[in-house]
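Re-running LacI family DNA-binding transcriptional regulator to confirm reproducibility after the cluster update. Everything else is unchanged from the original entry.
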Amino acid sequence: MSDVAKLAGVSHQTVSRVLNDHPNVREQTRARVLQAIDQLGYRRNLVARALVTSRSRTLGVVSFDTTLYGPASTIYGIEQAARTAGYFVSIVSLKSLDASSVGEAIDYLAEQGVDGVVVVAPQRSAARALDSLPAGMPAVAVEGAHRSPVSAVCIDQVEGARLATRHLLDLGHHTVWHVSGPPDWLEAEGRLEGWRAVLREEGRPVPEPLSGDWSPRSGYVAGQRLAAIDGVSAVFAANDQMALGVLRAFTEAGVRVPEQISIVGFDDIPESEFFSPPLTTVRQDFGAVGRHSIELLLRQIDASGPVDVERLVVPPGFMIRSSTAPAG
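Result of re-run:
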């Protein structure tokens, strides 16, 4: 910075102000400093800056199974929001989200000097692990919000399922069958709750749900079972991948979609509009989840004292495509 100041003919403090986007710098002076930075190939020493400010400008993220569309999209949204805010991200991906694994991951990130952590906690076990966060560590949970006294952001899974179920009933279907996600996932629990609530409110039969594991294969197996049951005309699958399996099973059984069976998924993965037929589905705004989780975390980091626990719920969207039609 001293070299930059000398070349630009300004003080060391002026260079610092330019680097930190301080408004009280004349544009002509700012341009001269930036030109000197380019000429000298100057790069800020983040380690030295951390020693001075006690801030690493790095945030930790703890997640599970980033091959799944939801967690992977959530992490991407968090990373993009952190970068926009001027922070780096250090990610720890775990094979299981039990209390011990989450605790070890957070300890590891704390040793790296992260300024705060976001825990993507879609399972009950991970949500319970939030109870043992290190004292004083700024933290935000994604999905595990209602299980622990930690600020959190989540998508309204119950409302998403209500939208899907209501859409199918409004098309004239007598009831809606459900292919649910794994029982230990909070998202699966919320979608099951929303589906069941609408059927009960409308006085419709509540069929026994068929449990899947988020994979197309589990949806395919559930679809084979459903295709063998008389009177099934509408199915709500807890994610798009399982809906794809259900579509395949009905097609192989000679049941036409949507003429004989209507199917709704959840997530709105990029491929869903290219299914055959294009899939009606609930859309999750993972970008909004990322932005809000970083906003809540930075609010804690920048606070001079304790802050209130906040819970922010992102509303779902609904994409109507060609996999649903009025009951025949």
